[in-house]
Amino acid sequence: MKSVNELLELFMRQAELERAMRQPGGARVTEEQELHAVRQKIAKLPQAKELSVTHKGALKTANSDCELDG
SS3 of 25, please? Predict the structure, then answer.
């Protein structure tokens, strides 16, 4: 269960960083490096392959809900 929670946190951080890169001015170099590191961590987790499609869809839904608040 711990690795599933970790994976969810990594997917959420990845989405956050990707969203920051789409903003005017883009992301700083440190954010780009962190995004690369997060993607590497996700790739190393065995559950990532099974859950990536499901969580990315869920994150898109969650992110669109959050944007309505902001």
Answer: coil
Which residues are within 8 A (CB) of 63 and not within 5 positions of it... i.e. 6 or more apart?
15, 19
If you search the block for the tokens 């970790």, which residue do you land on? 6
User: Dihedral, CA atoms, 66, 2, 44, 53, nearest 10 degrees?
Assistant: -40
Tokens at residue 25, please?
Answer: 């001015």
pLDDT tens string 9-59: 999 999 999 988 888 887 688 888 999 999 998 888 877 766 655 555 555
SS3 19: helix
Question: pTM score, two decimals?
Answer: 0.60
Paired tokens of 47:
């559950």
Show me where the domains of the chain are located.
Answer: 2-69
